Amino acid sequence: MKQPGAANDEQAQIQRNLAIRLCGINNKLIVMSGKGGVGKSTTAVNLAYALVEKGFKVGLLDIDLHGPSVPTMCGLAGDHPQMTEEGISPMVVSGLKLMSIGFLLESSGQATIMRGPMKHGAIMQLLADVNWGELDYLLIDCPPGTGDEPLSAVQLLGKNAAAVVVTTPQDVALVDVEKSLSFCNELKLPVIGLIENMSGFICPHCNQVSDIFKSGGGDKLAEKSGVALLAKVPLDPRVVAAGDDGKPHILACPDSKCSEALREAATAVVAFEGF
Length: 275
Description:
By secondary structure, this protein is α/β, with parallel strands linked by helices. Helices cover about 40% and strands about 20% of the residues. It has ten helices and eleven strands. Strands 1, 2, 5, 6, 7, 8, 9, 10 and 11 form a nine-stranded mixed sheet that branches. The protein has a two-stranded antiparallel sheet with strand order 3-4. Helix 6 links the parallel strand 8 and strand 9. It is globular and about 65 Å long. The chain starts with a helix and ends with a helix.
């Protein structure tokens, strides 16, 4: 068992490391969703690559501690990072620096069993122990909802942080998104805007668009909340295939309508002056 003094010294060192890491990061972007299944992680990965395309130095931290999906989406499932004297070296794929608790598990099927303070400590260490270097943007892929993980992210990141909230067009998703917006408002976290995912299905045969999940929901919520609607990303089967194959859609299909929409969102992020 650690003595109280030793535990305090260790905690103080983590805090110092955290401050050093954050000094090298200009802007922090928290990607949230009110509920699961809206394609938030897919959006976070592709939005990060859209920023890389614009010439920025970008990192992506996956803090979904129980269901990390970034390693699979980026073709790194089963890989582990290098440990150096400077800290944990982030994984790098096509110019994007990546870190996830999934890289630190023995296998992709291993369960992460933790709650409350343990989650806060794990997220702090992922920020403090990873040698991010100089970044223009660090994106944080949060699990859905307004629980421990997004709360810890906001508390730990401090200044120069803002949020993007991902939704789908149907009412059941929009109700939960309002809770995410309320969360940001209460914590005084600026919201850059909404991204409406699965906004119409593009038929691969006739190229016609069908509104499987209704339409106009993002526009209505944007008008009601006063938050900008950054982009409408259509539902394209190639997005799913790209994620399963470990190559993000914006790299696999750079000319698709989905990729164009994600670049619109990235342009809005760059133009945002509220960091």
